[in-house]
Amino acid sequence: MAEDPIRVLFVCLGNICRSPLAEGVFRSLVRARELENRYLVDSAGTGAWHAGEHPDQRSVEVARRNGVALSGHARQIEAPDFADFDYVIAMDRQNLLELRTLARSPQDEAHLHLLRDFDPEPGDGQVPDPYYGGPDGFERMYEMVNRACAALLDHLEEHRLDRTTNEK
Ligand code: 4NP
Predict the structure, then answer these.
(1) In this predicted structure, what is the pLDDT of residue 164?
(2) How many CA atoms lie within 13 Å of 140's alpha carbon, on the beta-carbon side?
(3) Is 17 in the pocket of ligand 1 (CB under 6 A)?
(4) For residue 5, what pLDDT band results from cuts at 50, 70 and 90?
(5) What is the CATH number of domain 6-167?
(6) Average pLDDT score over residue span 77-98
(7) How far is CA 85 from CA 82, 111, 112, 139, 166, in A?
(8) Are the C-beta atoms of 149 and 72 separated by less than 8 Å?
(9) Ligand 1 center to 12 CA (angstroms)
(10) For ligand 1, mutation pick of 50, 129, 144 (most atoms within 8 Å of CB)
(11) Ligand 1: which atom is nearest the Cα of residue 74?
(12) Model's pTM, two decimal places?
């Protein structure tokens, strides 16, 4: 029997800089490991200001330089996302606080994580907002997002194997 895919939603403020990059990087890591059938990946923002826009050109560029294509349009997170996604992954603590206020149950809250909690070099635990900074902010963002997404995928694959073993 086919396993249900693991559903992962990356969340930042505007859904044009950090979370589309995390979505694209994670998707590309999934593809490189030939796990496309096992993951559903999306991103959203806690704010609606940029809804409908393409990712910020600076994120598109840093992704492209690293062999990752970004696509999609920004959207604001909605209450059903908490049930529709197994993992709702915030870029910074402010995103996490906003998400906690939107969560409607302990089950919703249990889906919330900070991306850099998976980072082997977590720094202060956040992916800083690069929107008003210079280009090196986007390079640093790529490094942390790439490292954390690789570790997140390792974690999810280990967890999935645990689940499969427990079901036997
Ligand atoms: P993001 O970056 O949350 O990584 O998409 C931002 C994008 C837009 C704004 C702030 C952060 N803004 O204030 O419009």
Answers:
(1) 63
(2) 14
(3) yes
(4) very high
(5) 3.40.50.2300
(6) 97
(7) 6, 8, 10, 28, 22
(8) no
(9) 8
(10) 129
(11) 5
(12) 0.96
